[in-house]
Amino acid sequence: MKKINILLIGAGRIAEQHAYAYRNQNIFYDKMPFEINLQCLVDKNYQVLNKVKKKYNFKSASRSWKEVINKEPIDIVDICTPNNSHYEIIKIASKKKNLFIVKNHFLILLRNLKK
Length: 115
Description:
This protein has helices at 13-23, 25-28, 46-56, 65-71, 86-93, 106-114; strands spanning 2-9, 34-42, 60-62, 76-79, 99-101. By secondary structure, the chain is α/β, with parallel strands linked by helices. A 5-stranded parallel beta sheet has the order 3-2-1-4-5, with helices on both faces.
């Protein structure tokens, strides 16, 4: 079965909701054609990072998404940080041809990327 490797950037309340959904996707879907692998969690706050990493069993954790994006095997970048940080993350990660999940202000980000 194919594994989908998730890089979750941010470890706050929204990130925990995303991690919970990834971990429990089998409740909602029967016979998924892939396996979700919580590859890496990133957050600047060391205490929150370690708590969420352990709670959802992420494979690794880091305080720098810029370091991780080039080292870890990533298929999806799930951005759960404040909106004003999304543009920089997308701009850099898009060069790696990853998939993105961005929940807010996606059209504004697309316009900025065209600049």
